[in-house]
Amino acid sequence: TPPPGSPAGTPARPGAQGTPRVGIATRLKVDEVRSFVDFPPGFGVEVPGLGAHTRFERPPLLVTVRMKHGQQVHVLTVHLKSKRPKFLQDAQGNHLEDRDDRKVGVMASLRSLLMRGAEAAALRCIVIDLLQGTNVPLVVMGDFNDNPHSVTTQLVAATSEVAYDKAARDVALFNAYEMQGESALKKDVAYSHIHQGYPEVLDQILVSEEFVATSRRSLGDVRRVDYFNDHLHEGRDRSRSDHGFVRALLRLRTD
């Protein structure tokens, strides 16, 4: 059925089931909106006890916006599977496993890793399709539930491939924080989540080479990236997010 409050005639959209959906708010003109639910053919994985994992738990949302001077930009927002152990449950949510058994906990964590890895690989395919052979800039942002240099994040970005294959720049993504201009103030408070007392960067903004100032295909640059995370030290309060907020100021040339 259509989402609550939708205008009459709004088509139903498959999306996240039993978990919050991702969304994008923008003041720019929107040319297109797409949601990706299923993995590309052949990218599903078998998860022990769960069977085939072939679709995103929280489908990525792609919005193609048009800047004031006419330049299109793809914006893709994501929320990958968390590291929280995936214990087996029945349709009513009743536990089917002994959560106090440490070996059961290992398998539950492996399920989460397999699911997040499969989602990252499927997301990589979407990124390749959006970037290959085009000059439309792409911004991928959201909760990756892993750090920028993790295997799963690099599955999506493939930044390291650029070091030995210059052609890979066409379909690579770059961490906006690391692409800031020399005038940007980089502070040692670049974290967006605190897990058991340790700060982590789970919420990331990745950009295509069009926002890399040193690229010959550059159309702009990353001016600065800010992390707003003071509230994470004020105690757990369900009225506040347990994640910080990341803001990137991206500049496109208008000449």
From TrEMBL:
Gene3D superfamilies given in the database record: Endonuclease/exonuclease/phosphatase (3.60.10.10)
This protein's record includes keyword Nuclease: yes
Residue ranges with Low complexity bias: 7-16
SUPFAM superfamilies in the record: DNase I-like
Pfam families: Exo_endo_phos (PF03372)
Domain Endonuclease/exonuclease/phosphatase: 91-243
InterPro entries: Endo/exonu/phosph_ase_sf, Endo/exonuclease/phosphatase
Nuclease among keywords: yes
Entry keywords, A to Z: Endonuclease, Hydrolase, Nuclease
GO molecular function: endonuclease activity
Region (Disordered): 1-21
Highest rank taxon of the organism: Bacteria
Name used for this protein in its record: Endonuclease
Lineage, opening ranks: Bacteria, Pseudomonadati, Pseudomonadota, Betaproteobacteria, Burkholderiales
